[in-house]
Amino acid sequence: QILYLKPPWTLANLLKCYKKHWMAVFGYVVPRSLLSTIECLSKHLYADKPFDSSTVRILLQESKKLLHAFSSRSDYNGVLPQAYAEVTKLCETLGEVRAALVEHDLSEDIMVLSENAACEKMEATTPSLQSTEEKELCPSFHVAQENRHQEIWSVLEGVWNTMNLYSIELFQKLDPGAVAMAAKASFEEAFLGLQKLLAAVKDIREGIGR
To answer: What is the superkingdom listed in this entry's lineage (predicted)?
Structure first.
């Protein structure tokens, strides 16, 4: 009779009921600090925009935290352990997918860099070849030359995205509140840093040449 929203509930209704009755009811059953988990789920699940794999991972972990807390009260006729197992399975699947994507991106970057290095070496050792013969031996070199700046940018962005992904996971383990800060890292700033590094490497090469 005093419920904020009457059943049957949707998940959105349920989360609203949690927030409305948290202090008077649910805060006596589970730690009151878990209200932040309810707010996190409500904020992201019903936002009018898609979310990335990092956000999905956070939502799954928050869901596990909530289910685990309520398990101290009851198993709810076996429903709660089943739900916990399903969420855990989703976490594992997401982890496998993310690991595979990272490995795929790194493999592609390594292949591009290796291919370019091999082509440049071939060009240096066969300067007398005609242009048609060069295309037959190493056509990818000419494609790389025509789109050099785009290719380099793509490789750098792939490396940066991978580093940023690991940074987000690291900061999340150390301090969940730091995830947003880590996610806002600027790729442009990293690129400027690499420009300085390239200048330093150029000086070293010139020194070696002398």
So the answer is: Eukaryota
